[in-house]
Amino acid sequence: MMLACSLLSYMDRQILAVLSPMILADLKLNAQRYAEIVSAFSVAYMLGNPMWGAILDRVGLRRGMAVAVTIWTIACGAHAVLSGFLGFAVARAVLGFGEGATFPGGLRTAMDWLPARQQSRGVAVAYSGGSLGAIITPLIVVPIALAYGWRSAFIVTGVAGLLWVLLWRTTVDFSAVVASPQADRIRIPNPFERRFWSLVAAYALGALPIGFILYLAPIYLSRGLGFTQGQLGRVLWIPPLGWEIGYFFWGWFTDRFAANNPRPSWLFLSFAVLGVPLIAVPEFRSSAVVLGLMFWAMFIASGFVVVSLRTSALAYPKEQTGLVAGIGAGSWSAVVAAVLPSLGHMFDMKHYANAFLFAGIVPVFGALLWWALTLPERGLLDIDVTK
Fold first, then answer.
1. Is-contact 333 49, C-beta < 8 A?
2. Which domain holds residue 68?
3. Which of 55, 91, 255, 359 is the most exposed place for a label (fewest CB within 10 A)?
4. Within a domain: residue 38?
């Protein structure tokens, strides 16, 4: 059910990206305006993640997830009747706030119900619905949009969300205990802790290529390589497939080689190096090579997600597991919201090389920052301040 939840959340958010050439042309919006709409989602998603993480830690998955999915389903369906920048921005913001519960719920489920040797794979299963949703969205919504108009696609996914809520209510027992006995109050993250910023560095900066490719790849393929909307529907599943495979591979890999390692530096530094080829995308005119590089970048970025969540879950108390996921996904959304309008402007100016260079280098800084923040205390400052 949590896999299905994350699948629906990414279908709802990816419709706009997948159909962006069609929607932008119909509404007469440029790439920068589109990026600002996505940023409205990202800001609300940033705020919603830690809030829902704390709420789920307090009231439990049953009621919390039912409310959250209902909120974002209504927001998704509302897109079908909107026609301007402001309306889309507001609807995306409400959608983003509701979807903030998705990954805190997924991490909470894996950490609560699985033994330590399977928790990374559990995270991968719960989170993989997001990448699976990104894979199947173009295959489903593009034919619908081409046949019945882009508005109909939002109606279809809205109905799917309502069906999930109904099925969820028949799956879980709402009369059962809903919260951890330690969750006697709603907790908020402490932004003055190193463990907070190490999670932000690894997740938000390391996984930036996921957001970059999800939101801007359709525009690059359309404008840079001349893809039609129909052609986009046939190929946009390829990059997220790397994301999907990456979740399962890195979940297995982490359980096998770093299950109880609170500081797997070699993994994060490997991710940083392996993700750099993304910067070469504008050098190629072959769509196969471009899609292959995007596939690889999302495969590597998913490793940042799995390992950062696993190590941070070890660093925080068990009753704050949902909050850990909220910090990670919320900070990622904050970074996406901050940089996407500028990247969209680069696309409008056809400065594609600069945009891909930025997206490929930021994870390197994220890995190095994580490494510095997780050094032992005396490794950072070997001075006895009491003397």
1. yes
2. 2-376
3. 255
4. yes
